[in-house]
Amino acid sequence: MKATIDIPEILYRQVKARSALEGRAIRDVTIELYERWLADATAPTAPLADPSDAATAWLYRWDELGEEIARRAVDPRTSRDILLADRR
Predict the structure, then answer these.
(1) Residues in CB range of 56: below 8 A, 6 or more apart
(2) What is the structure's pLDDT at 42?
(3) Where exactly are the structural domains of the chain?
(4) Which of 19, 39, 52, 75 has the most CB atoms in a 10 Å sphere around its CB?
(5) 36 exposure class (CB count in 10 Å sphere: 0-12, 13-18, 19+)
(6) Helices H, strands E: what count in the chain?
């Protein structure tokens, strides 16, 4: 399916430049982002103490992102752990 969307020109230029550096088509990047967004929307979330507390929601999301990055990391150890292991 084809769709036309209006996005800010500066944003499009940044996406175009980064996708070119990575050797990817903008179409592929867009599809990946839609898939991630849908997966995130269906993921269970922990209940907030106060659902109207935007700061708590923001911190919770950053915590989730940190956990995801740690899972995807080639070496999930912290920099400190790596340095300590190297010293031994």
Answers:
(1) 48, 49, 50
(2) 67
(3) 1-43, 46-88
(4) 19
(5) exposed
(6) 4, 0
Q: What does pTM read for this prediction?
A: 0.45
| Residue where the block lists tokens 């929601």 | 57
**Are the C-beta atoms of residues 31 and 15 closer than 8 Å to each other?**
no
- For the chain, residues with pLDDT lower than 70 are 42-52, 74, 76
- The two tokens of residue 17 are 């430049």
Residue 1: Cβ within 10 Å count: 2
Q: What distance in Å separates the CA atoms of residue 53 and residue 49, rounded to the nearest whole number?
A: 8
Residue pair 19/29 in contact (Cβ under 8 Å)? The answer is yes
48's CB contacts (< 8 A; 6+ apart) are 56, 57, 60
